[in-house]
Amino acid sequence: MTPLEYFDASFKKDVWHLHMPSEIHGAFGGVTGGALAAAAIALGRTVEPNRVAAGLDIHFLRGLSTTQAKANVTTLSSGRSITILRVEFSDESDKPTTEARVVFAAPESLRTDIQATNSDSGLLGPPPPGLYADAKPWRKPEGVEVPIIDTASPRAARVGASIATMITVPWDMNGDGSEGACLAADLSVGPPVDAVMPKGAWVPHPNPDLSLRFSGPADNGDLVAIAICREVSGGLATVETEVWQQQSLVAKGLSTSLLLSKS
Hints:
Helix content: 10-25%
Strand order of the largest sheet: 1-2-4-5-6-3-10-13-12-11-9-8-7
Largest sheet: 13 strands, antiparallel
CATH superfamily: Acyl-CoA thioesterase, double hotdog domain
Number of strands: 13
């Protein structure tokens, strides 16, 4: 099924209605940010079905804890080369929860005959041989419901100072597959922050944002996101992530995590 079919999306009275099933909810009692990012791109494709996703910047204003959601899609700019859309989500009581900006590029305006890879650029990947054999399934926290673990089957393994998170996307990959890259990138944010936390004391660290730049298509649902916590200071953690399909870089992203006090 397509991402929009997975979210049971329908357009009524100038508003998109989506079903965000509990299977894609995370540890903080709401829909995972990656699923919302995926929905933003999928909705954007209804406006620009012939363009490819080039970038996404999404901010999670508050948790989307209901399974029913609404979304408004606004075209901010549309030209020969790119279209910029704003996608705003609200819960079933109409409270705003998420705002995304999605950039689509026109394939006919792009020079696809130029290929380049800089092996000295300090990339986190590609995934090394044997990664899947070393990966371990995510553990379910005691007393905390995390349905996305059953849905995406995330597994993790260390790659030097980074942590690789392998997932299976729960919908069919169509187009350039950017929706799946959103889910992989978002799920990769937490493990490297966990890894730098003091042992024996769990610190909540939700990420209120995610920025992604897409660099290549993903044609199947098995993705690896390799992430590293670059800095922790003043209660903020900066996480860099890359999404790979085998040896091909699909997306690169940056996210902030908030280290929350329990009081």
